[in-house]
Amino acid sequence: MCNISEQTLDKAIKDKYIEPTRRSRTLRAGVEFELPVVCLDRKPVDFELVHRLTDRFIERFGFDSVKRDDEGNIFSTEDSKTGDILSFDCSYNTLELSFGAEEKLTDVYERFLSYYGFIQSVLTPERHTLTGMGVNPYYDINKREPIPNGRYRMLLHHLSSYPKYSELMKFHSRPDFGLFSCASQVQIDVEESRLAETLNVFTKLEPFKAVLFSNSLWGKDNCVLCGRDHFWRDSLHGLNPHNVDMYEVELSSSEDVAEYIKSMSIYCTERDGKYINFPPTPLRSYFSSDKVTGEYYEDGGYKQIEFEPELSDLGYLRSFKFEDVTYRGTVEFRSVCEQPVSEIMAPAAFHLGLLCELDALAKLLASDRTLYHKGYSASELRSLLDRRDIPDFIDKQELSSLLTEIVTLAQRGLKARGFGEEKFIAPLFDRAARLSSAGRDMADGIAAGRTVEYYIEEYSKTER
What we know:
Elements: H1 6-18, E1 29-39, H2 47-61, E2 65-68, E3 74-78, E4 85-88, E5 94-98, H3 105-123, E6 128-130, H4 150-159, E7 183-189, H5 192-213, H6 227-233, E8 244-245, H7 254-262, E9 265-271, E10 274-282, H8 283-287, E11 292-298, E12 301-307, E13 320-321, E14 323-325, E15 330-337, H9 346-355, H10 358-366, H11 378-385, H12 396-417, H13 426-434, H14 438-447, H15 452-458
């Protein structure tokens, strides 16, 4: 099918992203943790050990579905009963634990502790560990190899093509960032009537989250506390700003949300089992095209291909928004770096608690004069607050007080749910009081003489 009409595209977008928010359901959350794998001897991660770990994990927990890479190794395995998945994200240097949607975060945490304890029992005797950081601390020691399959090979090849677009924007020179960048993500059910407001309010919250959750050190003297923002924004993913970062518009309805999605760019699809990448193209332009020219991998090299767009290609749209509308009827919150393992549930609980107090949060942020109404947008404020030096125009005591109010609001929302989930955000009160994230603690500690190895160990502990 070619020359797909805009009316047809509109319907497809609404069917995929808006219709699921109209379902009646119990409020549930799906949590994902991306954890760096680290060799404690400062050597590259032993991928053979990783593969043995995966086999033993499947044997121990009875996961019953697997996906294999081109070399026959398992890179993803799922438990069909719980929906839990152990996988490797982009490379075998990053282990991801994804949990099936649950009403209670306490149920997720119980399973996490079981999985994590077993994984560490396999890794530790081999001088390896998982740790809770947003950037693998040995990213320049580890093998820079994507998982050998079509998707990840295509992704790294696509991102590495950024020099072709150098006249359009300034790019960083680490297209391999997906091999070492780690996030803590949560998807939460959202109803259509609250969808636009949820995106608006949580966009305004992003600068505050940078203070609490930055944990991906980057730059000279660790001057940037949340390098993950920079990785996506200044890569080929950010060629179309609507695919990354925050919403720079006020959304008033689900219609607005659908129109925003239509303004995003698509850069890959599949034909005959082969991944194809092509220049990032806004959906409107892509689906109105008769032909698209791209390239695919075969026999050790890349070949050019011309193909017709198909409506099913919408399934290959990749958004990297901080607040991302999904096809599951959820909003995925994805701007948070992975946290120390002892605080690993804090981001999910924080978002869930605040979503339960959305009106109160909206009112609190609308009246704020500590960050807002000082000439800066939400995006600009987040960029300022993900650095070690807090700008002089911000009153630190006022910021600390406001952060404490926000955490207290999340606590109230969690208490009202009645599942005991408020315990997960207890560490955030201390962070709000000190205006310090795990990344800031690490940057300051390293500046004072502590080693990265100290933090690898500290951030791997389930209790601190």
